[in-house]
Structures are given as structure tokens and as C-alpha cells.
Amino acid sequence: MSVCRSFGLLGDPVAHSLSPRVYGAAFSHLGISAIYECRREPRQATASDLRRSMLGLAESGGGNVTVPHKQLAASVLDVSSPAVDRTGACNCFWMDADGRLAGDNTDIGGFLEALTDLDGLRLEGASVLLLGAGGAARAVAAACSAEGVRRLAVCNRSARRAETLVSEVGIDEVATVVLDPMSLPGVWDLVVNATSLGMSRDDALPLVLEPHRFHRAFDVVYAPGGTRWSRHAAALGIPAIDGLPMLVHQAVLSIENWFGAVVDREGLIGTMRRAVSEAESG
Ligand code: NDP
Predict the structure, then answer these.
(1) Which positions are annotated as active-site residues?
(2) Largest alpha-carbon pair distance within the chain?
(3) Among 84, 105, 128, 221, which has the highest number of CB atoms less than 10 A from its own CB?
(4) What are the residue ranges in the chain where pLDDT is below 70?
(5) Is the dihedral of CA 126, 127, 129, 133 positive or negative?
(6) Are 151 and 127 in contact (CB under 8 A)?
(7) DSSP-assigned beta bridge partners for residue 192
(8) Which residue's C-alpha comes closest to atom 6 of ligand 1?
(9) Ligand 1 centroid – CA 224 distance (Å)
(10) What is the per-residue pLDDT for 277?
(11) What is the side-by-side order of every strand in the sheet holding 101-104?
């Protein structure tokens, strides 16, 4: 009889998350006996609280970390991937063969793969305006830098946190911190919302867009039918996606960390996308 392994998502809030549906569909598709659950890890959690929760899940399978704990998660790992070292943020963890708590950042790859849903935008030589400076923003900034963007402006409610992102992710050469993005001259190939604005229905838009200044918009936040901001962009004629494609692609990379390479990636992605569509329509 196969052992049922247990995986989970640690964060606060997590009730909205589609991850259990996405991973549940993936495990069935792959014939893996495992469950995936949301586990609220309070915002006030300390490093030792979070490490205890991560170890508990890692012993039975592994898991993911979401808002607001990705940076704290990176600090409690025993073994970190180069992507965690680069970003200072961890969203995927497991126990390695030596019983050490290991972690990766699959948001970087998830973000890059999701660009195929945005007319296959190429980041090399592009100008990117990044809103936010938390865990997700670190992954987006690292991806932009790795792909060779020409210009990256980082705007966050707390400017100090944006400055820390630029220096810790090591992107001083291409990136600047801006206080008011609308005061910046020029046009942008891509604007990315990596703040948590949009998670709640009552949230303000992260930025009111102007069609002639922004060529594409990517909201890392997701919601059934698109977020209010991705719909705002689309209504202005700006090609836009929300965070669902990124969620699916980072999940594939997480599964590969836990179980090894997936042979039929396209088939798995198709299954997970269908699970998301069914959640949206149901
Ligand atoms: P963090 O808590 O690390 O960062 C939150 C960010 O949002 C910070 O920049 C914060 O600014 C900003 N913010 C929060 N509230 C406000 C507000 N009221 N006004 C302006 N800015 C605000 O969260 P993460 O980076 O981990 O996650 C951010 C979002 O991205 C979440 O919705 C998460 O679900 C989503 N996400 C989606 C993924 C996907 O696969 N689609 C992957 C990763 C994340 P400050 O620093 O000033 O507090």
C-alpha cells in the first residue's frame, strides 16, 4: 500500500488560495498519493514558529510559503538553492536526503514561464516598472535582471524596503527606486504588480494605468476572472494577465523539487489549468 504524503501552504491569509486545487489535480494526474492543504501561519509568526511548521510539513512531504513569510522562510533553511540566495526569499521547501530543511524559489521560473501567456514578451532589453518589494517582487526583480532588462524601476509603499531589495538582489546597475511612478518619463514595456493589493475585493488599484505609457501588465495576484487591476489594464487595451499562469508554472517547479523531473510537463500544465478554470466557473 502506498503511503499518503502530506503537503501544505503556509501563509496568512491562505483561505483564498487555489493551490490545493492545483496541486490536488497535479497529484492525481501523476498518480501520486498525497494531499495538499492550506495552513494559516499567523503574520506574527517568529522564525522559530515558521521553522517548526516547515519542518512538520517537510517530514511528511513538503510545502510552499506565501505572503508574508517568504523572506523569513529563506532565513530558517538549512540548505538553500541559488535562487533563494539570489532573492533572499523561499516559496518551496522539503527535507533533503540528509534530513536538512531545503528550500528553493520557484517564483522566478514561474514568472518567466508565465510570460508566454503575455504574447511571449521577451525581457531582454525591456523596460520594466515593478510595484512592490516583498517576496514576490524579489523573484520578479531577479528574473528581470537575469534576462537582461534595460531598465527596472522599483516602487513600493515603503521606499526603504525597495532600496533593500535593489541592494540585496544585487541589481544596482539596472534598477532604480522610484517614489511616484507616474512622475517618471517614458514608456514601459511591462508593468508588474507584485504588491498584495488585489487580494481583497476592497483593495485600491496598485496603479492607475495610462494606455500609451504601458505596453503590457502582469498582476502576480490572481482572482477568478482576473484581478480588478488586470481587468482595468485590459479595458484600456493593454494586454494583461493575472497571477494564475505563474501559480501553475511555479507549481510544476515545486513538484519537480519534491518528486523529480516531470516527463510530460505540457500534460501536467494542461491538467492544472483545467483545475483552475473549473474553480473559476464553479
Ligand atoms: P509580501 O508580504 O512579502 O509583500 C507584500 C508587498 O505588498 C509589499 O511590497 C508591501 O509593501 C505591499 N503592500 C501590502 N499592502 C499594501 C498596501 N495597502 N498598499 C501598498 N502596498 C502594499 O507578499 P508576497 O510578495 O509574498 O506576495 C505578494 C502577492 O503576490 C500576494 O498576493 C501573493 O499571493 C502573490 N503571489 C502570487 C504568486 C503566483 O504564483 N501568482 C507567487 C507569489 C506571490 P510594504 O513593503 O510597504 O509593506
Answers:
(1) 70
(2) 63
(3) 105
(4) 1-2, 282
(5) positive
(6) yes
(7) 130, 218
(8) 195
(9) 18
(10) 84
(11) 34-40, 5-11, 61-65, 92-95, 101-104, 79-80
- In one-letter notation, the amino acid at residue 131 is L
Exposed/middle/buried for residue 147 (C-beta within 10 Å: 0-12, 13-18, 19+): middle
Model confidence pTM above 0.90: yes
Check residue 120 and give its pLDDT: 83
Work out the burial of residue 24: count CB atoms within 10 Å of its CB; fewer than 13 is exposed, 13-18 middle, 19 or more buried: middle
Distance CA 199, CA 69 (A): 16
What pLDDT does residue 1 have?
56
- Quote the ligand 1 centre to 220 CA distance (angstroms): 9
- The position carrying cell 497529484 is 27
Q: Rounded to the nearest whole angstrom, what is the distance from the C-alpha of residue 150 to the centroid of ligand 1?
A: 24
Instruction: Pick from 19, 43, 64, 67 the residue to mutate for probing ligand 1's pocket: most ligand atoms within 8 Å of its CB.
Output: 67
| Ligand 1 neighbours (beta carbon < 6 A) | 66-68, 70, 107, 110, 132-137, 156-158, 161, 194-197, 199, 220-222, 243, 246-247, 250
